[in-house]
Inverse folding.
């Protein structure tokens, strides 16, 4: 079936999506010491937002949820919403 909607085929392109929970810097020695049952503490607040990432760019923030026994992602803000709130000041600086 062909899509006659302008840009319709483009909208059906698929992209790999990642959900980033946290990013840490860890010494190599600590990584080499990891073993089953070991813990790697993260500085991320467990109730804080996680990021939805496409091509290493954050496109949305949200929260992890359970949907039919599997992880899901509930969007709370999108990159476009964050950009819309950024306004330059008269001196040319950008403030969120």
């Amino acid at each position: 079936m062909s899509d006659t909607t302008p840009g319709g085929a483009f909208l059906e392109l698929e992209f790999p999506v990642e959900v980033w929970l946290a990013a840490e810097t860890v010494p190599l020695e600590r990584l080499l010491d990891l073993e089953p049952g070991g813990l790697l503490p993260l500085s991320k607040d467990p109730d804080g937002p996680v990021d939805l990432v496409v091509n290493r760019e954050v496109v949305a923030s949200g929260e992890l949820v359970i949907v039919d026994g599997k992880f899901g992602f509930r969007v709370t803000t999108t990159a476009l919403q964050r950009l819309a709130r950024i306004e330059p000041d008269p001196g040319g600086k950008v403030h969120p």
User: Anything to note?
Assistant: Strands lie at 17-20, 50-54, 57-67, 70-78, 87-88, 94-95.
